[in-house]
Amino acid sequence: MTDWIHCNCCYARFRPNIKFYITSCGHIKCQVCVSKIKTDNCLICNSVCEIVQLSNNLKPNIQCYFRPAVESVDVAKQVCSFQLTNSLALLRNITAKYNNAKGEIQKAYKIIQDLKKEQQKLKMMLKASMRNGMGSSTPMIPTSVAGHSGSSNVNMTPISNNTSMNSFMQYELPSSSFMPWNNRGGNNARIAMPHRYPS
């Protein structure tokens, strides 16, 4: 379809026996008008341009302007359909990965929240246990230590609430010669400690 091709200068219609040209600025000129050009400037827009003869040997980027518009639309439609199909496939894959990652993050977040609750619960239990232990525990003191064949038996007696802690702290231990870890005492060394403490 060439009925729309004409010279943009003299408006001569396209005929096979007349050469037509196209400039890089997008104007079509017939052979007669081109012969009148004395410079590299376009006769229409006066811009510096290159000129190429219309033929079947045009570059693809120029030929596309002379193909039927319907063909160009069909090609464009196919190109759009091809690109859209691939874009949607990629989008579905990305969406699936996103949903999977989102699910894993939600699971991890729930685990973290559960662990925080458990940690808080354990802290409260520990504090309560420490308070109860400090309020009910009674200090224990040794009442006798006897060594038999390298072993020792220790009897622990709790300090009553009426016993003065100052008296207990002021009590002096026996001489070091009676200590079980003193070699001079031998294997039969004994620690002689009174059963009663000064009040």
Automatic annotation (TrEMBL):
One annotated Gene Ontology cellular component of this protein: synaptonemal complex
GO terms classed as biological process: homologous chromosome pairing at meiosis; protein sumoylation; reciprocal meiotic recombination
PROSITE patterns the UniProt entry points to: ZF_RING_2 (PS50089)
Record's keyword annotation contains Coiled coil: yes
All residue ranges annotated as the RING-type domain in the record: 7-46
Coiled-coil blocks: 98-132
MF (Gene Ontology): SUMO transferase activity; zinc ion binding
Pfam families named in the record: zf-RING_5
Keyword set, alphabetical order: Coiled coil, Meiosis, Metal-binding, Zinc, Zinc-finger
PANTHER family xrefs: RING FINGER PROTEIN NARYA-RELATED
Protein name, as recorded: RING-type domain-containing protein
